[in-house]
Amino acid sequence: MPGDESDRRPVVLVVEDEFEVRYAVAEYLRLMGHAVIEAVSTADAMAVFTSGVEVDIAFVDFKLPGGLNGLMLAKWLETTRPKLPVLLTSGLTMTIFGFDSDKLRRFIAKPYVFSALDAQIKDMLGNTGS
């Protein structure tokens, strides 16, 4: 039946300040069947969550403008949305301290292959039953 929950596409919040990267990732994920919301900063992402929009997974860049980085957003989500999967990404070669990977919190290094990103997202959504 149209509008049925089984017809609902998973919603991915892509938080990335670099337009070209955000646009390419968002378009690819849409082609793969996801609904995508785009945010440029941690503040934009927090506004999405406080607006009540339903998000199934957050894909967050580590380095973001505005004083709060992606790790800080991931920590905020851990507190406010503990069951929401968060996939953090960065081009930094150093280890990101304070981010404990598990089935709901993972890291994918830049540059990543889009198909590997999609597979990671689908796997994480499968772990939550979404």
Written overview of the protein:
The chain is of the alpha/beta class and 130 residues long. The chain has one domain: Rossmann fold (3-Layer(aba) Sandwich), CATH 3.40.50.2300. The protein is built from four helices and five strands, in the order βαβαβαββα. It has a five-stranded parallel sheet with strand order 2-1-3-4-5, with helices on both faces. The chain is globular, with a radius of gyration of 14 Å. The two termini are 19 Å apart. The model has no long low-confidence stretch (mean pLDDT 88).
SSE blueprint and pairings:
Layout: E1 11-15, H1 19-31, E2 35-39, H2 42-50, E3 57-61, H3 70-80, E4 86-90, E5 105-109, H4 114-128
Parallel strand pairs: 1-2, 1-3, 3-4, 4-5
